[in-house]
Amino acid sequence: MAKRLAILVAVENYSDTRIPAVQYAEADADGFADALEVAKPIDKVVLLSAKATKTRINSQVRQHVKALTPEDELFLFYAGHGFSKNGHNFITCHDTDLDDLDDTSINLQELLDVCGKSPCKRIALFLDSCESGITDIPEIRGIYSTMSENELKEFFQGAEYRVCFASCKTSESSYSAPALKHGVWTYQVIQALEGNDPIALEKGRYVTANSLQNYLAKEIPRTLRKVFSKPVVQTPWFHGSHTGDFVISDLAELLKKRNAVKPGYDQVKQVFLQLEQSVNIASLSGFSKQRGHRVPDNVNGATERFVDNISQKEVTDEIEQVFKRIRDSMKYKRRDLTAESGRIITPDFEFSVTVTQDPDAPPSAVITRQLINISPAIVGDDAFNEVFDDSFNELTFEFTRASTSRI
Amino acid sequence: MIDQIEDLDLDDIDLTYPADCSYCEIKIAESPLKIQVMPRSVTVHTPRRTSPKLLVESFFDVQKKLAGTHVLKAIASTSAK
After folding, report:
1. What is the pLDDT of residues A194-213, one digit of tens each?
2. A407, B17 in Cβ contact below 8 A?
3. A275 touches chain B (CB under 8 A)
4. Strand B24-28 relative to strand B34-37, pairing
5. B50: which chain A residues are within 8 Å (Cβ-Cβ)?
6. Touching check for A376 and chain B: CB below 8 Å?
7. Which is deepest, A84, A86, A143, A234, by most CB within 10 Å?
8. CA-CA distance, A257 to A197, in Å (whole number)?
9. Residue in A119, A184, A187, A113 with CA at minimum distance from that of residue A153
C-alpha cells in the first residue's frame, strides 16, 4: 500500500545565540503535519529545534527517502533561516555556527539530490525560510536569489510529480504574525490543506500544486495587509513538473462530512415574521400640540416613554382588529386566546404590536408587527393566511449563538 | 462569509456590507428578494407585504436558487459556527 511520508524540520531556536529565533517555526511544522493528515493518514518524522541538527536532518532524510517506493508520496517541510552563498542555497540547522555558516548548514542542492535519487515519484517540498536576521553577514543573500530552474534541473528532470513551494522570493522576508501564531505563508498553506477556503480547491475537492500556488499568491498579500500596519512584501515562490496533475490532498471525504452536518437550522432559536413601518411621531393618536407635545429631536428615556404613551391607541386598536379577524376566521375558543399588553397568544402562534421611537430618526416611530412561536402546521392554513394576508415582509431565522461580530 | 461569496465571482449575486462587516446583504439577479445576514440571524425580505405562507415559500425559493452554490454553504456555515 502506498505510503505518505512527511519529514518536518523546524528550527525555532539555535544553539548559537547570535542567530535570532524563528518565531512559530515549530508551530508551523506541527500545523503543517496536522493539515496534511486531514485528508489521509500520514507517517511523520518530526525534527524540532534541538533535534534538528545537521547530522540528524541529513541522516533522517537519507534513511527515510531511500526506503520510499515509486507509489509513495513525500512531503518535506522546513521552517527556519536560510541563506545563499557563492551560488549555493543553504538551510540552517540547530547547530549552525555563525562563524562557519556554510559548513554547519545544509546545502539545499544536496538535499534535493537525495530526494531526486529516490524512486518516489511524488515529492513536494515546502520551504518557509528567509535570510532575515543573518543578512548582515558579507556575501550572504536571500536564499532563493540563485535558486534558478537550472539549479533545480536535476531534481525536476525526469520527475513525474515534483514540486517545490517557498515562502518568499529573493531579498524578501518571510513574515510571521503573533495574531496567527504561525508564519504567514505556512498559515495560508495550512488553511488550504485543511479545506478552510473553497478558492484553494480545484473541482471543489482537490488541493493541487497549481490551486495551492494560485491561492497563496492571492491570499498572502491580503493576509499581510491585515496583520501588519506597515506595507510589507512577500511573494510565494513555486516550481514544479506536471504540476497541474499533482494532487497534494483530496478533501472529498472531509468536505462530505462537513457538509453532512446541516449547518444552522438545528441551531435555530426562533423563526419570526415581521413588518416594520415608520411613521411621524406627530401622526400618532396621542400626540397633541394643544397639550404641549413636541416632536423629539433626540432619543432618551423620556422621549421613549413619551412615544410609548402616545401610541397606546394604535396598539390597542390593531390588537382589537387582529383579535376580531382571528375570532372570525379561525376556530379558537375563548380560553385558547389571550390578548394583553399589545399581544395575542394562541395555541399556534403569537402576534404582537409595538411602537418605539426610531433610534436612527428621533422624530419618527417604528410600528413593529411580529408573529412568533409559529407552529409549522399553521403556516399552510388558509384561515391563518387570510387573517395575516399582506401583513409581513420579513422572515427571520434567529440562531442560538452569534458566530462572530463580523460576517 | 463575505470573503467566501466574493471569491466565487458570481455575476448574479450582489453583495452589500458596511466597512465594519457587521452585516451583509445579498441580492440575487432576477429575484425581488433580499437576504440580510447578521451575526445572530438571517432575514429574507420581500419588497411587498405578503402572507406568512407566501413569505415562507419565498424563503424556500431563495434556498432553491442558491442550492448547489457555495453561497448557501457560506451562509449556513456562518450561522452554524
Report:
1. 998 888 998 889 999 999 99
2. yes
3. yes
4. antiparallel
5. 389-393
6. no
7. A143
8. 16
9. A113
What's the rounded mean pLDDT across residues A51-77? 94
Q: Is A357 exposed, middle or buried (0-12, 13-18, 19+ CB in 10 A)?
A: buried
Residues with Cβ within 8 Å of A203's Cβ and at least 6 positions away in sequence, in order, are none
Query: Among B58, B70, B78, whose Cβ lies nearest the Cβ of A198?
Result: B70
CA-based nearest residue in chain A for residue B17: A407
Cell numbers given for B8: 466565487
Taking CA–CA distances from B24, the nearest residue in chain A reads: A407
In chain A, where the domains are located: 4-260, 265-399
pLDDT for the residue A140:
41
Sign of CA dihedral B79, B27, A252, A65: negative
The number of angstroms, rounded, from the C-alpha of A384 to the middle of its chain's C-alpha atoms is: 43
| pTM over cut 0.90 | no
**Strand A338-340 versus strand A206-208 pairing type:** unpaired
Q: Is A318 helix (H, G, I), strand (E, B) or coil?
A: helix
Work out the average pLDDT over B31-40.
86
For chain B, say whether A398 makes contact (Cβ under 8 Å).
Answer: yes
Q: Picking from A6-15, A25-34, A121-130, A293-302, which range would have the lowest pLDDT averaged per residue?
A: A121-130
* Residue closest to A174 by CA, chosen among A129, A121, A126, A230: A129
CA distance B24 to chain A (A): 7
Q: What's the whole-number average pLDDT of chain A?
A: 86
Q: What is the pLDDT of residue A229?
A: 83
What pLDDT does B81 receive? 39
Pick the residue from chain A with its C-alpha nearest to B40: A402
Q: Are A104 and A14 in contact (CB under 8 A)?
A: no
Q: What is the residue whose three cell numbers read 376580531? A: A324
Q: Do B53 and A198 touch (CB under 8 A)?
A: no
Q: Which CATH number fits domain A4-260: 3.40.50.300, 3.30.365.10, 3.40.50.1460, 3.40.50.2300?
A: 3.40.50.1460
pLDDT above 70: percentage of residues in chain B: 79
Phi, psi of A341 (to 5 degrees): 45, 50
Do the Cβ atoms of B41 and A396 come within 8 Å? Answer: yes
Residue of A nearest to B6 (CA): A199
- Spell out which residues of chain B touch residue A391, defining contact as CB-CB under 8 Å: 49-52
* CA-to-CA separations, A25 to A11, A125, A183, A302, in angstroms, rounded: 6, 16, 7, 59
Selected for mutation to probe chain A from B41, B45, B54, B75 (highest A CB count within 10 Å) is B41
